[in-house]
């Protein structure tokens, strides 16, 4: 079951970031991917999470 979520994450990463950015070097790609994960977790609402970010959902659960 975990593999489904990881595959979906990497698909999103590729289509919303890597394929669009055309990074010129490995260090540039690493920096871009790290930046995208910040966006993905902290700023980008997810429909399946009722338009909350993963960080909002995680930290709400952590407080309980």
Q: How is this structure best described in words?
A:
This protein is mostly helical and 64 residues long. It is 75% helix and 0% strand. The protein contains 3 helices and no strands. 0% of the residues are buried.
Short description, anyone?
The chain has 64 residues and is an all-alpha fold. It has 3 helices and no strands.
Shape verdict: elongated
Tally of domains: 1
Helical/strand content category: mainly alpha
- What proportion of the residues form beta strands (DSSP E)? under 5%
How does the major sheet shape up? none
**Which quaternary structure do these chains form?**
single chain
Order of helices and strands: HHH
Q: How widely separated are the two ends?
A: 25 Å
Number of helices: 3
Helicity range: over 70%
Q: Identify low-pLDDT runs.
A: none
Q: How many strands appear in the DSSP assignment? A: 0
Radius of gyration: 13 Å
Q: Average the pLDDT over all residues and give the rounded result.
A: 91
What are the defining features of this structure?
64 residues; mainly alpha
């Amino acid at each position: 079951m975990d593999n489904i979520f990881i595959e979906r994450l990497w698909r999103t990463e590729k289509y919303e970031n890597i394929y669009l950015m055309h990074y010129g070097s490995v260090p540039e790609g690493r920096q871009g991917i790290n930046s995208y994960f910040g966006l993905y977790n902290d700023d980008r609402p997810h429909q399946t999470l009722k338009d909350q970010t993963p960080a909002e959902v995680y930290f709400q659960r952590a407080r309980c």
